[in-house]
Write a structure and sequence with these properties.
globular, three-stranded mixed sheet, eleven-stranded mixed sheet, alpha/beta, disordered N terminus
């Protein structure tokens, strides 16, 4: 898998291994939260991305949007904070921040489709080397399709970040040359966060910003996509 060139190996030293072990779910969420620019309007997808809300700081002044009709969502609700009438699109109880607002579902999708979100963070089954996204259906006969607002988010957001495990349960890379699952969005993903590395999808190819518990060379051996060090 992942044929290396001499230039790849030589330049691999420019890719820092910033952790001795793969990242856990919370560590991934912290990293994504840290990377979101201050003042951004952001949508967090169902699953892993929801945890990002727990690590955004007040100083970042990030406004969270959920497609069931809310701006100003806070961290996930716990204990006495839980109000079953206040949930995100994944039906998880959340908190509200000062200035939070509520609106019709159609208006929420107009925000998504109209290019008003700076970043959306989504899960994925596959991401291609050119930033194509597959996250709503595996194509398996017994799988339940669940596109939700993913197509609208992937198309409308200025930046699309993906959080996913790098490998499937049977050891196959989810970062692929071309999608084999039904497409959610074409050429929309700009960054991929996994437990083993952060990948940047660029016009020059897939660049590795940093690795976790694995060398650049060993990482290349896990995927069929040629990897480049981040510039």
């Amino acid at each position: 898998m992942g044929e290396q060139t001499t230039s790849d190996i030589t330049s691999a030293g420019t890719v820092p291994q910033t952790s001795d072990a793969p990242l856990g779910r919370d560590d991934m969420a912290k990293l994504v939260a840290k990377d979101i620019e201050p003042g951004s309007f952001v949508n967090l997808g169902i699953g892993q991305p929801t945890n990002v809300s727990n690590y955004l700081t007040e100083e970042q002044d990030v406004t969270l949007h959920t497609e069931n009709g809310m701006l100003g969502m806070g961290p996930v609700a716990v204990g006495d904070q839980i109000d079953q009438d206040l949930i995100n699109a994944g039906k998880i109880p959340v908190t509200e921040l000062p200035g939070a607002s509520y609106f019709h579902h159609a208006d929420s999708f107009a925000i998504m489709r109209g290019g008003h979100l700076d970043v959306c963070v989504l899960g994925a089954f596959q991401v291609s080397a050119t930033g194509d996204l597959a996250n709503w259906h595996t194509g398996a006969p017994d799988a339940i399709p669940a596109v939700g607002g993913a197509m609208d988010l992937a198309t409308g957001a200025k930046d699309v970040y993906v959080m996913m495990t790098l490998l499937t349960k049977d050891g196959k890379s989810k970062l692929v040359p071309e999608l084999t699952y039904p497409v959610t969005g074409v050429g929309r993903v700009t960054r991929v966060y996994t437990e083993k590395a952060v990948f940047l999808i660029t016009e020059e190819g897939v660049r590795v910003r940093e690795t976790f518990g694995i060398s650049f060379e060993d990482l290349q051996g896990l995927v069929d996509v040629p990897l480049l060090p981040a510039a």
